[in-house]
Design a protein that fits this description.
Oligomer: homotetramer
Structural class of chain A: alpha/beta
Keywords (chains A, B, C, D): Amino-acid biosynthesis, Arginine biosynthesis, ATP-binding, Cytoplasm, Ligase, Nucleotide-binding, Phosphoprotein, Urea cycle
CATH architecture of the largest domain in chain A: Alpha-Beta Complex
GO molecular function (chains A, B, C, D): argininosuccinate synthase activity; ATP binding
Shape of chain A: globular
Distance between the termini of chain A: 89 Å
Number of helices of chain A: 13
Largest sheet of chain A: 5 strands, antiparallel
Order of helices and strands of chain A: EHEHEHHEHHHEEEHEEHHHEEHH
Organism (chains A, B, C, D): Denticeps clupeoides (denticle herring)
Pathway (chains A, B, C, D): Amino-acid biosynthesis; L-arginine biosynthesis; L-arginine from L-ornithine and carbamoyl phosphate: step 2/3; Nitrogen metabolism; urea cycle; (N(omega)-L-arginino)succinate from L-aspartate and L-citrulline: step 1/1
CATH superfamily of the largest domain in chain A: Argininosuccinate synthetase, chain A, domain 2
CATH topology of the largest domain in chain A: Argininosuccinate synthetase, chain A, domain 2
Number of domains of chain A: 3
Largest interface: A-B, 98 and 98 residues
Pfam family, one (chains A, B, C, D): Arginosuc_syn_C
């Protein structure tokens, strides 16, 4: 008799294949689920493999559009970046994948979900927190089987090669899949214009060849293509995992890096200084929440709402050049610009009286002078 | 009879020459003061000019070493960056320059200080707040004379060319003084190793040619040279001035950009996650204070102290490559690393029990499940 | 010929009467405007006085309901408190009063507004910032006339008696207008139940005598009455003005103090911990903005929106007792409570596995043990 | 053969007596440890009981002085308060108690520690995090024995009576041990003067009867006595536990409440506004850390250091009255006051030019007017 049904996030790789078999052996019915979030993978072959290993059912789900619109776009609005460097690409994939998995579990009457993200990492947390948040009664079995663990690690070049040798080894350039080595990238830049509305890109145009994209998925894919061609968005960092360890992370985020710079720029152009300051703090909080797996949490919903509110006037076009691993902002324009040429100009006095600046400075100095006075008094 | 003595921050340029003459005409004795903070300038010629225009005395002060040690180094420790992009180079020069000016004023018995930073900018504020903070009784006269203003602006390419044309004009590449155009920069990277102690660089070594520098000024100059050669640290941004206007800023910070990346990296390697999080908030505060001219303020002293405290274990070496406008971190090592290879490794279980992660996740999910439960209850 | 029309915020007192006369003498037409925000004042007499002094027109505006609903209620939602102690009563009155003044100025075609809040205080700032924010072209003339100033100060007991003698004098008990001295207050408490919806009170009931109020103005007036009767909400503090001085403030906020405690309680009962933490930070920001006069600013609008969003589930009833200057929370109930009796109970294990706590603790300790390990290593 | 030695935090009560017996039965040698942090308890009787139950050794440790100096005083400096209401009394006792327990364990060669704080509470976390932080190799066994749990709960009035009945029952007044019911408290206030140095109390004087205390323990005990006599510091709250549940807490903190108000006051009088603002944020962080059990953590050490630094000038005397559950600040004085009577006075112009305020306001309004301009433009 079956112990119940498990929906397994299946990758087609060795790890999750082993888990599939192990779950069957334990007496579970297994529904395999493959999420397409844009990775290059032979989904048909994976489906066949899952079936041949005994999956009762196989779901292959194209989540690319919803991943871009519902997960990447809010991160762009937030200028989400973890510990000043990591653009959180994999972190936001987990809740997207797990959400669908929960939907399938509910639909198939499965009481269990499973995944291959075992061990000491963040992905287990992101996966399981999402499942608990969306389906509180669910359980998540996973194996402690030593063999299985070993196989997994042995085949995982990321951990094998990099975490071990953090002090001595530099990352080999053939590690990267999406980005060219800047050494080998073109000797001429591509110049793009990205148009934003409410803080999300609505169109990208290649200013030379005129190619233009305007659906979220096409925009993001195009930016990945251009960024990848020029080697944009590679980082090699030490990061702090939620479980309190430091680990080395090597990431490539070509399209996300372009969007990060472009969005920062249009936001600075259209958003009030003090709103920006408050929103910056919310964006840092948002980044920590995403990294730690709390996409589906009351606080993350709250922060997303607030950040989204801040983006109402973040609208306009940014021109930028992509070249040798770098993104250069060239200019920007917006119908909602708060940049006032006349106000800032040195040869138009306009409404601004230089005497006001003196008063402004002297009032700001009241505190400083008092502090100085006290220091002087104390020395007497 | 003299109205009193003014110490004028003199640049040798047209603006401050006009101010010098105007102050003399108004009846002041003028002491001209030129600060050398590393800019390329003919100080001897400037001295002669000041004398010929009637300066009673001329001080030429080499502040380069103290600028690096007392102003740049604390900014490196703080990862100081204004509005996520601007590394604050000019902002930290003002308090350094004004501090010496106040010292000269006190020494010369001058009741007045003056400067050329008139108008709508941040520099007037930074200059005057510093003076008030260090010499509360001082006064700072400056001219509203329309002609003078006009001359100044007419000769200031920065404002003339860039603020006006923010939406349409891209910055011409000959604007930059310290950095090569990345297009024309070398086709091979330079690889450096920077050694830090207590969060400040104590040595830089060129890993190929073996050149090594170990005084603050030499280290910073060398990094400026290498960064400049590879076109590192150019930005074209819209920023929010303290007086509430948005303005366009075009900056180049070659050495500072290299240090920013290197310091972020060694800090992530040696600093506890939660200390880092608190310190990040202090660094953002510090950056705003510097930008707004509050280097000499009780809160900035407090924040500097706290940040400095956080750097006690920020020690070690970072290897990096500089190429085509980009800084790539290659690796790092430290006697105070908090990276624990064994702990993070997937094939050593060590002290870490995977069951703990499940408990950790389930306890973190308590809140999320309650939230979900309430949402469900409310829908009934 | 008239210099133009001024709308003067007129109080009927000596100061603003002098300003009215002075403005007439300067050649302005003066429209007098009296705002009723609940202070006890003879508005009819004030109107006659303004007319007799030459006001072209007199507006007496009852702003009590909008003051409670649009200004006090959002402050209650925010738990707004400045520097941990001051509940901001007068601070939120200014934007309410100035907003109507701007409306009258626009309606009457007045280019000028004026007020009696001269000098070194916060109220001038709150008043003028509101006017500039809502009517950017407006001007605000006020007199520097020494006599006028002197008269004003001479008649202002608040400043006269208290700011001078901050170190030695205790506030005399007859200073307070709204609250009884706790010494003389009743020897038996009043017990109230306040019902909240979306974070604002919608009903208050006296649990003994059954009196119940349910409009914002009536609720707030009743709470002022009960709080006043029991001497609730008196404070004697030193606060930091926006212009950088410390000043002494003596305030009484009977109804606001009751609402502060009641709202804190119902919020804690219904709001997720982490949402609360983020919202607490926004509330502190909100309080500073209000204090400094930025009610009408993009950042304050943004923060108000976010805080209001956080209040969606802040609903339920709080029972409290008011006695001898103190508010005691007795209990609370809510249909949206996140308090789960079964979950927290010690004799129901339910869904919560004590082993999870051990895992949770051990994972939280990973960082701490690493820190300890490093400290030990460094000592070797 | 012994499984090893356990140091048990023993209270003399039923729970820890059961644990002692259970540990013996499991084969451990048990060292009983009783910490005296000021609770009223018959330590001699407890010692005898532990011995009679088979403890190999019994330590009775008087931690009162170090508890006040090393744990309470830093909390006073921080104005530590959790979720705006709870003064953290029990939270700071745990690390104090556990620290000595670890010292005893090391000295006695014990590999294990144990305690009675089982279940769903914060105290288990505070206890165990402290032990792991100070003695990473230690283990902490505790029982899941259902009987034991049941007994514990049955005899624990706190949980029994209050957590169950949160919505309907008001706390009975005989629950409180340290504070009189304000109803029954004296009809005349006691007036105290507390002197601070570097943010901690160094003397308390009863202004009428002249009694004066000047050691930390005596000061705190005296304040507990006076506060208790007048019913100060009772709260009945719902709080958010670290493990994500809401629970009801009923606390009494008489001396701590007096110190909280007095310290807030002297701090406001002597600390720069902006330093205070930054320090307020650190204090909130500190409170969360303490509540969650992270007293011994790198971030808490860092924050304590920063807060302590902020207190350098927090010096002076506060006069206050304690009456019917309330603390009223009457006045304050300090050699390091930043309150400047002349500066703030309305009839001394002194150094402050009212025109400066107008400039200050107009510059602050630049942003607001731009925002208004944009809103207007957008509506066209």
């Amino acid at each position: 008799m079956s112990k119940g049904t498990v929906v397994l996030a299946y990758s087609g790789g060795l790890d999750t294949s082993c888990i599939l078999v192990w779950l069957k052996e334990q007496g579970y019915d297994v529904v395999a689920y493959l999420a397409n979030i844009g990775q290059s993978e032979d989904f048909e072959a994976a489906q066949k493999k899952a079936e041949s290993l005994g999956a009762k059912k196989v779901f292959i789900e194209d989540l690319r559009a919803e991943f871009v619109e519902e997960f990447i776009w809010p991160s762009v609005q937030a200028n989400a970046i973890y510990e000043d460097r990591y653009l959180l690409g994999t972190s936001i994939a987990r809740p997207c994948i797990a959400r669908r998995q929960v939907q399938i579990a509910k639909q198939e009457g499965a009481q269990y979900v499973s995944h291959g993200a075992t061990g000491k990492g963040n992905d287990q947390i992101r996966f399981e927190l999402t499942c608990y948040a969306l389906y509180p009664e669910v359980k998540a079995p996973w194996s402690m089987d030593a063999n299985l663990m070993h196989i997994r690690l042995f085949t995982n070049p990321d951990y094998k090669h990099f975490n071990r040798s953090i002090n001595s080894n530099h990352a080999p350039s053939d590690l990267y899949l999406m980005t060219k080595n800047p050494d080998d990238s073109p000797n001429h830049p591509d110049v793009l214009e990205i148009e934003f509305n409410r803080g999300v890109p609505v169109r990208v145009t290649h200013l030379k060849d005129g190619r233009s994209e305007d659906t979220p998925l096409d925009i993001f894919s195009f930016l990945n293509e251009i960024g990848g061609k020029h080697g944009v968005g590679r980082i090699d960092i030490v990061e702090n995992r939620f479980i309190g360890m430091k680990s080395r992370g090597i990431y490539e985020t070509p399209g996300g890096t372009i969007l990060y710079h472009a969005h920062l720029d249009i936001e600075a152009f259209t958003m009030d200084r003090e709103v920006r300051r408050i929103k910056q703090g919310l964006g840092i909080k948002f980044s920590e929440l995403i990294y730690n797996g709390f996409w589906y949490s009351p606080e993350c919903e709250f922060v997303r709402h607030c950040i989204s509110k801040s983006q109402e006037n973040v609208e306009g076009k940014v021109q930028l050049s992509v070249f040798k691993g770098q993104v250069y902002i060239l200019g920007r324009e917006s119908p909602k610009s708060l940049y006032n040429e006349e106000l800032v100009s040195m040869d138009v006095q306009g409404d601004y009286d230089p005497c006001d600046a003196s008063g402004f400075i002297r009032v700001n100095a009241v505190r400083l002078r008092e502090h100085c006075r006290l220091q002087g008094d104390l020395k007497k």
